[in-house]
Amino acid sequence: MSEQNVQRLPAEALYQTELEALIAAETNPIPTGWRMSPRSVLTYLTGGKAKGIEITPKYMGSRRLVEIAIATLVTDRALLLIGEPGTAKSWLSEHLSAAVNGDSTKVVQGTAGTTEEQIRYSWNYAMLIAKGPCPEAMVKSPVYRAMESGSIARVEEISRCASEVQDALISILSEKRLSVPELGLEAPAQKGFSIIAAANTRDKGVNDMSAALKRRFNIVVLPTPSDLETELHIVRTRVAQLSNGLDLNASQPDQDTVEKVVTIFRELRGGATLDGKQKLKSTSGVLSTAEAISLLANSMALAGSFGAGTVSDNDLAAALQGAVVKDEEKDKLCWKEYLENVMKKRGSQWLPLYRACRELND
Amino acid sequence: MGGPVLFGVRHLSPAAAFHLRQALDRAKPALVLVEGPSDLNDQLKWLCHSETRFPAAILAYTQTPPVRTILYPFSIYSPEIQAILWANAHDVEFRFMDLPSSVFLALAPDVSPSQPEEQDPSSPAQTTEMVYHRLETLTGEDHDTFWERNFEQLENMESYQAACNTFGRQLREASMDNPRRTAETLVRESYMKRVIQQAVDAGTPPERIFCVCGAFHVAGLEQNQPMTDGEAAALPHTDTHATLMPYSYYRLSSRSGYGAGNKAPAYFELLWEALCQGQPANAPYLYLTRLAAAHRKAGNLVSSAQVIEAARLAQTLAGLRGSRRPVLTDLRDGAITAMGHGNFSELALAAADTEIGTTIGFLPEGVSRTSVQEDFYRQLKELRLEKYRTVELQRLDLDLREKLNVQSQQAALADLRRSFFLHRLRVLGVHFASLLPSRQEGANWGEYWELRWTPETEIEIVESALLGDTIEGAAAFALREQAEQSGSIAQAAAIFQDAFLCGMPTAARHALTLLQSLSVDAALLSDLAETASRLSLVVRYGDLRRFDPQPVIPLIQQLYLRACLILEDACICDAKAAPAVTAAMNQLNALPLEHDFLDDGRWRTLLREISDRDDLNTRCSGFAMAILLERGEVEEPLLSREVARRLSPGIPADLGAGWFEGLAGKNRYALIARLSLWRQLDSYLSSLDDSSFRRALVFLHRAFADFSPNEKNDIAENLGEIWDVHPQQAAEALMQETTETERAVLDSLSDFDFDDI
User: Domain spanning A2-221 has what CATH number?
Assistant: First the structure.
């Protein structure tokens, strides 16, 4: 009951019925330490049917990439997901571990303040002082626990960790054991242990990963959505989900508005118009799908709280200006050029938005 | 059954070639029939020649324009080639059995020559394409991968043959052929049947005939009746030529469609070699180690551990897809993940090397007579250029203007067509004609050439056969290749110009797209202005060369807009860079005057802005003022106010004089005529103290350096008027010997210490 008010449930709880259906319908061999076969994991992530229960697709994108990710885990290699912010890296890693282990909560969140202890183990100092080094006084990290139970540990934002912290992973990944000199202990990893790490490519304040560490990972680069349709679909679904949860008091932005935003984002991100005929300068910011979603939700909040309840071109123009022009000098130039060279020539449907945007730039 | 052995194959399939040889060994036929144009049997001996190296292709083409061609590319792992080589080695009779190429070319007049892949004779592409498409949606893999996964890995000859024939049969049932395609297939099959029947009639026992054909046709050959004599006589027919030509793996990989090409020829050769060595299971390791070696050669680090990981991952991926051994996509994905850090771009070079390769075929000397050569000679005759085909160097002057006093359109534009032809040869690197510089400034209708024929020219033309089937086609391909390699905006502009000169709008449009994409990254103002004014020329003179300038306009607009946007920042520069900026400003200024489609208001506002701002290079500001002045945008009070402001005593002398230099950069007569201006300059100079005056003098020297003597004279007269000096008296004074003291003063002025600046 207390679960009802939890802001966010872990994937294995949210999709419990689907996971159970898949396990019940299993016909293929299951690797040691896994709860279902690789093919079922694939079904769980890309969608399908099991025992009459509809499995919703969790990752809308290249099925092949998911296959590579799963195959990596089967070969007991560690998996590194790389991509721009907002390309569903954490989302994919959470669902992978939920499907493989039924537990997506062994997570180390990488930050600039993450220490080596958080990767290996630390001590309950009160008990350490009282009893001296003993197994009860040890606080095991998620990685340690995953090694013991032969399951998957997740490391988020690995590139934000300092390099000595990253290096702590090297020995774990190559030796597959962790030594605790204080207790004279060598903890070997059980079969099924692996690590899924996620890293950002375009962000400020990231640390380069050493070649030694990279070599221990199989690297999968997650792309931004491959076509307009996919991205539109993702944005529309997520905006609807978000606004239901947040009670935004504004009507859903219409098809046209969503399409305009996604088109602008895709074109500026890709550095070319959608038809590929014209190259564009791309902006310094990332302009991810996630940002398009939050931009629309924001405009809805604006329209709902202060406006007429529908997202107008002026709301949109202001939001776009803020999203696109992050670096005043350079981005403004790109944006102006985009307005004149592309948006202005798009015809009457785009004209109001063009005028609203131009007003902000003159 | 007792009928002929029908061995269904897939074109360019190593497994098919391998199993075919085994089947031939077992069947020991007396006659081998191969799917291929039966009028080209005389080319077969060259295919078996000991000097021949594959890939090679048979090219058949029509003798009359428009040139239509069909191409039969063969690689060492083509089943057809292996059948031919086997028969040749075992002294067994062999020949082609498909419709003659002359009939093919007559049958397909509706297919335009610009889409050669659709003319591919051996593939029922358009229709089975649908089935392949459905297969792709079902399996999530392209059909090459589907084929490799399900058929290439079969190791048993019988099961391969059974699988292949079943696939062909079902494909046949499933494909909804359009009536034309169906009819063509039926005609072909009954013709093949007729050839078999003829062989039987000639005394070969049917069970000793071995037919190699596409798996698709096996059912057709079993069911259809042979073509009768009457039907055969009724087939359309056109005059064709055929030749063998050396082919390349690159070309093979760039042609799409079943049977016509093969995306990874080098990889398939590797499969073929592994099969021949009896170790097909080695192929994945061979591929990965070669890829790693190529990647290392390109200067990257790859450890053996990474290669091992790639192999393991590929194996698991194959398992997920349910095949025994990894196929190319599995191997490639494994390599990208384990060796390429998840990015294909890192491995792209090595992958091109390992999958496509650089192999080029070779034919014994004197075998080729390509369609490009034919085309060259025909055009030479048509354009009446034959008399220039001599070793002697000859001049040819062309007048590109349309001649109004002749009868036909053809004749009216004869010189223009000659120009197109010669330019195309130039683009192809055929050294037959060389362009001489124009004799008359601005007379862009005149072109002057020197023509000379050498034996090397012939060779160069043959070489261009690899690029295309006609001179125009080859030139288009050459331009496209150059375009793909060009990295700078200047190169791209040159390619566009070439395409424009060759009269090839499609190639020009392609170059234009490239130019657009390069120009986005071009930050240099001078590049932008230069390119824009070059393109502007094309718009203004395009009519002469029958060129539609419409696609150029948007690009000029973009270049103009970007130049306008960055001009202000470009004006923040030192004295060294300023001349380049003013030159660009001059070019830009001409653009909105020439073309209505550019926003002149934006330009004028920008100029006013630059002219008003104090923090830019003063020479640029001065030049902006000069342009405004020339356009009549500056009122007299504004000018005098600006002159007063720019040349006031507080301003450092180099800045003030720099501004004046900019102002004098254009439109001098208007300046000279304005007496008030000189009065202000005079009062400015007299307000300076000695050291500032010396400083200013350096810049003024420079400002007036490129004034003509006449102009200087006029200025002197202006000054004389201001100082109330009578011209005649002044002349007298100046004519006198300079005195010692005067000379000393003058010397001290030129004795300026430049280290100060």
Answer: 3.40.50.300
